Amino acid sequence: MPKVGMEPIRRKELITAAIEAIHARGSLDITIRDIASRAGVSLGLAHHYFGSKDRLIIAAMRFLLSQFSTQVRNSLQCVSTPRDRLSAIVKASLGEEQFQPEVVSAWLVFYVHAQMSDDARQLLAVYTRRLRSNLLYPLRPLAGERAEFVAEGVAALIDGIYIRQSLGDGRQRFRDRYGLVEDYIDRQLGFTQAENNQAGTA
Amino acid sequence: MPKVGMEPIRRKELITAAIEAIHARGSLDITIRDIASRAGVSLGLAHHYFGSKDRLIIAAMRFLLSQFSTQVRNSLQCVSTPRDRLSAIVKASLGEEQFQPEVVSAWLVFYVHAQMSDDARQLLAVYTRRLRSNLLYPLRPLAGERAEFVAEGVAALIDGIYIRQSLGDGRQRFRDRYGLVEDYIDRQLGFTQAENNQAGTA
DNA sequence: TTTTATTGATCGTATGTTCAATAAAAATAG
DNA sequence: CTATTTTTATTGAACATACGATCAATAAAA
């Protein structure tokens, strides 16, 4: 029953279905047939709207990156001090939206895909540069010369927590993910004893 | 020219070729034909020795894990204090052997593969548990109750540095990878100012 | 002669892509 | 308001390709 104006709806449905399929399979080794089936449309329609499997994958990746950027931007509003800015970035990077199982799976898969796809690599490079820039801006006044060092540490911690989450056997082994990064930042900025959080283990 | 006793030789050649193929392709989407070709043998021989593609992949994974374990064990010899023990683990985890491009690619790919292969997940779980145990042993006397927290932080940092290395555009953006972790450990253990290393940026 | 190492042709299967056909809505004309 | 034309949405069969797996055959060593 063709209604006009279905294109953006179908595109989003197919992208969502692709992310679901990636999560279910645990890799990019998925079929357009499966994606189309999950979206409730025929095989041909996916090709009609995206042209090829590769472009559908890239579109899904771009969707997640855009969603993450929005999350960061929202987090950075209503924030005044540089220290709060750092917390906002951490909270956006490790927030519930980014920790949904499908999203974690997809990000991990995209990381790997970036090793063989130029488009994917460029997209990830944008994210990497933006995160680095977002971290450096509040870190310059707080950490001075050590800003780049701390930024690299925070970024690595975030990525590491993320990748370790992807291996969680259903139960998440370590729940205080913000605490790990906040504690790191506090210590880097000169607090010998992290003051706000007890930093307890799971 | 069949010589007797070729089995272990061929197995290792095929495993090495598989790791090369994974690095070249950037994923597990590789063909047995390619692997066999890289090893200089026929397609059929790979099946003869490994039975299936999956078992060859698992064998390659097991090879890398075993190589890493050996590296850690060697590093832990000739070490006395708990603090030195920590450094030894860090050095083994981020050492040159583990940072060869083929090895980095393979590890990243195996991380993803663990999401859909039970065998792969179990193998990685062994590595994760062993690393955690190795870190906790020297951390208990040094960090007391915070040992588990610090262990999780160190592990996440290592994994994060590792995954970020895999995206390096040829040049490695941040070369002082030991420094990041050592600095983290020092600060967690109470040194306000990291004393031994300047912890400079790249 | 028996065992071990090795090959490559062959088969079935699954996948990405193409394409002609269909059906409903919208636009246009009478 | 109806009839026809055009546009948009959608389908699934068909095709070429590539892959993993199987297997009978071969050749050298024991």
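qc> Residues 192-202 of chain A have pLDDT under 50 and may be disordered.
qc> done
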